[in-house]
Amino acid sequence: MPERKLSILWENERGVVTREVRDAGKKVIIDLQIDRVFRTVCPDTVIREAFLNVLLTPCTEISEIRNRTRVLNDFRRVPQMLDQLIELVRRIVMTKNTWDSERSRLYSTRRVNPQDKSSVLWAAREGLVLNAHFIRTVNVHVHTICETLNMFGCVDGWLGEVREAAFALSQSSQAKEINAFAERIEKGLPNAHTYDVEFRFDAEMRTDPYFLRDFRYINSYERPQKKQKTSLFSSLFERADKEKKPVQTEAVPEIPEPPKPTARVEGVDSDWSFETAAKAVQETDRYLTGFLRAVIEKFSALETELYFYKAALQYVQRFDERNVKYAYPEFREASENRIDIRNLSDVLLLTESMSVLSVVPNDVYFRSGNGETSGILVTGKNNSGKTVYLRSVGTAVLLAQCGLPVPCESAVISIRNRIFTSFAAAEGELLPLSSAGRFEEEVAAISQIIDAVEPSSLLLMNETFQTTAYDEGAEGMYHILNYIAAIGCGFIFVTHLLKLKELYEDNRSVEILKTSDSPQTRYKIGKLEG
Amino acid sequence: MSYPSLIWKKPLRECTETEEKIPENVLADLMLTGEMKDDTLAYFRRPCGAEEIPQRQGLFRILLEDEGFREKLKDLREQLSELQRIAGFLERAENPTERVMLFLPSLGRYFTLAKTFAELASRDGRAAEIGMYFERLCAEDVFRQAEAEYAQLMKNRRPELLYTIRGNEVSAAEGGEMLKDKLERYFTEMGVPEAIPNRKALLRTTDSTASAYAGVYYGFHAMCEQFYHKYAGAFMNGDRDFRTVFAYSGEIGFLLDASEYFIRLRDAGYPLTYPAVSAKKEVVLTGVVDASLAKRELRGKDVVPNDLLMAEEYREEKLAFYILTGANGGGKTTFLRACGLAVLFFLAGCPVTASSARIRMFDAVYTHFPANESFENSGRFVNEANRAEEIIEKTDENTFVLFNETYSGTDEQKSEHYSRRLADTMYERGVFGMFVTHIHALTGSRIPTLAAVIDENDENRRTYKIKRVGATSSSFAEDILEKYRLDRESLKKRLEGEHHAGT
Q1: What is the pLDDT of residue A248?
Q2: Which CATH number fits domain A325-527: 1.10.10.10, 3.40.50.300, 3.90.320.10, 3.40.50.1110?
Q3: CA nearest to B100 within chain A
Q4: pLDDT-derived band of residue B8, with 50, 70 and 90 as boundaries?
Q5: Which of B4, B204, B234, B471 has its C-alpha lying 20 to 30 A from B372's C-alpha?
């Protein structure tokens, strides 16, 4: 099994999101006004965009959702850890930018005469020294990421994986060795005079490219570092250490190794030597460049993922501030086709209204397939809370499937493969220049949805097909709804098409809800009486 | 004991000189060019002997049925090209050190190759014979001994070398653990295997590098030298010279490429049969179809099959040479090509596209099809006549000739005169072949005539059937013209239309 790509959002690498899925996702977000919610919750445009992008493709794996929830809870526990991680990852991204610009500067300013092999070697050395420098810089940042996660005790889950990766790339013995090699290159290669170049013959006496193994250099003068003042404590400790130290055991005289056979390479001149050394330096450079790029890519990919959690955290914090109750839903397999939420409130109202107490919660129960409800029709007077009800369900399912909590008492949701919305558009909101009538445009939009719909999807429709004669609209809708139910997809339909009620009179597969008419229970939704 | 050839009776080393008896234009006329690689097509120009045909047919039978056998041959071809490559380096080695070092891997590859060949022993026919030859070869003392010594040497071989470069002083030493390997291992262990860059191409070793290697690993080199002197004589000389086996790659290439072509035909629904070698002078084809139609995406079931009977003597009639006439677009050329391909494939030992066949041996095949090249020095007719003349000179009763609308580039009288002379000459000489012509005056003579049948009751529909007849008198050009709106009526209408448009 291939190793999982380092990510704190996705269980498996998400392939390319097609334009069709993307557009449908955007439409859902806009129809449910989730973008509006997050404009209030998360004022930073970059972070918000990153967050909404993730919302385009909700998770369909329960384990993925659980993992996200867990990461989110870790960040909720210590919000400063999230800020610190974002800062560190940004630094890595910045280091990459500097590295790129430094390299292009180096390539554009250096003068290499291909005839003069020594200049080729100097140029190759400069490139390697530069990369060695950046390996050390990035190493520091990765090290800090590891330390940060360590400090806040993230040892397992996806954050634990990040910690492990950071450890492997900055503090493991291998990483230390590479770092030491980089340090040696940075310090000594500009003054190198002797190069150890390794290569290998294959069975047919062909050689692979030369590789720089080591070099010797002129040690330039270094100012001796000032001896740091030792504190009283440390001197005491040192003394204690000294006292503890056992008497040195006598060193065993080493048996000198027999000299390895060496041979003078005949028939080579200085040009050949410079060229060979340059090739070796370039090959080593290629390896270290690959390493540096891999490390940077591994961590810089986390930037937008962390932004998602930043926005999600702000969403949760908003609820905390306003004393809103929320819960993480319990997830079921898609085949169960079930949504059961107690006292669900609308997120938009919660974030925007003056007082959260004025928001009326409602229950949602819905179980399609197995001869039970395949969908819900919501009817009622104007301004009685139908659309809010529809929106609250859609928002709850979508956010829950992205790993976020939902403002409710409790929730059981089975995974929806996809979510579609069809909200009646205002005049001119559809294609303004199209010659088709409004109804035709609506039909076209519905047909697109019907093409894309799959079993265990959720379809949310708001006053669809009311742009034609109501009886005709109802008739048409009836068949469409039956089709949707038949393929095992659930729907909630807010409508004024009263004829649908008649059509469904003998058909118990659709539950008909009605908003309350009484002023005392305004915005409450219940079963249609009689 | 010299290497046997896979597809010829002669030993392998003499096979390269086999004469190309069939001219190149035959392949082009029969539309075979481009269907297979040029090297493969060259084999179709070298007709094989009566004994070789059943051998090759046996090979093709296995090749077409058994994918495992095809894979085996592909493997062999691959190995041969690798061996050829390294042996090329050995040939061009600049100094004794390099030669000694390269001898080792060359021989190693040769050993593997011989063993792969030996695995063919479990097959049938020619493949088994070749396999058994190599089995015996591998069992020889010198072979086994050399192989064992080779394995021992390879085990002791150390490939790494370390140069220490200081100015122009370069010294070489044993390589020890490679830093590159270590880095690659580290990258994988650290979870960034993608950091390992792509491998660069290997470089040819140079004189100085080889000497340095020999200097550092002098003990190993001495053993290699010993090995070289011991076995170079045995494996680079005489019958067992390992370089002789390179000739197999051409033969295997022919077998694989041709069998792929026939598999394509089979998959497109064309019938395939392995003709019997007829002792009598005859060509009997039933249900023959033109394989070149597969190029035009025609499925086998959509192609009309025809029969052909050619014999030196049949019911007291000489049926070796035919005149073929009939409607345009009626399938004359297609029939001609079908028969030509059948004979050509048969002579190369391949299956033919017919339901059954019995064919005699021929020395050569010639074709004369209308040429579309530009004639720089002479007119079209002169060129055609010259080409025909060349063919006429070479023909005898052991050749198979196809003429397609020869002498059509002149006036009717002249054309008739030349055509008659050609047909008569061919008939007299007892040459096997056919002559497609529109000169209806030629029909009805003693030379047997074939015609493309049309259905006059059904708007002159082409049936693409070829039948022996007295003669047919019309070429039915009218309906083709009509189809392309070039007949009189259509042209008139067209003209009227343009006239109207003009005014």
Answers
A1: 59
A2: 3.40.50.300
A3: A205
A4: confident
A5: B471
Q: Give the single-character DSSP code of A293.
A: H
| Domains identified in chain B and CATH numbers | 12-158+222-253 (no CATH), 161-216 (no CATH), 268-472 (3.40.50.300)
Q: A416-430, B82-96, B356-370: which range is least confident on average?
A: A416-430
Find, among B342, B353, B339, B322, the residue nearest to B451 by Cα: B322
Sign of the CA dihedral with B492 first, then B496, B497, and B502 last? positive
- B 229-288: CB under 8 A from A: none
- CA A185 – CA A130 distance, rounded (Å): 9
Separation of CA A272 from chain center = 50
Distance (Å) of CA A215 to CA A212, A375, B169: 8, 75, 14
The type of residue at B223 is: M
ipTM of the complex: 0.83
Return all residues near B103 (Cβ < 8 A) that are at least 6 apart: B90, B224, B227, B228, B231, B232
Q: How many helices (H) and strands (E) does chain B have?
A: 16, 14
Q: Is B160 on the interface with A (CB under 8 A)?
A: yes
Q: Which of A216, B132, A425 is nearest to A434 (CA)?
A: A425
The residue with tokens 């959002």 is: A9
How many alpha carbons fall within 13 Å on the CB side of residue B174?
12
A42-100 per-position pLDDT tens digit: 999 999 999 999 999 888 889 999 999 999 999 999 999 999 999 999 999 999 999 99
For residues B8 and B15, what is the distance between their CA atoms, to the nearest angstrom?
7
Q: Tokens at residue A15, please?
A: 């392939």
Closest Cα in chain B, distance from residue A264 (Å): 4
Q: Which of residues 5-64 of B touch A (CB under 8 A)?
A: none
Residue whose structure tokens are 């002498």: B407
Closest chain A CA to residue B105: A204
| A389, A378 Cβ separation under 8 angstroms | yes
What is the tens place of the pLDDT at every residue in A204-237?
778 888 999 999 988 766 666 666 666 666 666 6
Q: Domain spans of chain A?
A: 1-17+57-219+270-321, 325-527
Mutate to test the interface with B, among A138, A177, A205 (most CBs of B within 10 A): A205
How far is B101 from B112, CA to CA, in rounded Å?
18
Give the gap in angstroms from C-alpha B243 to the nearest C-alpha of chain A: 17
d(CA A158, CA A11): 9
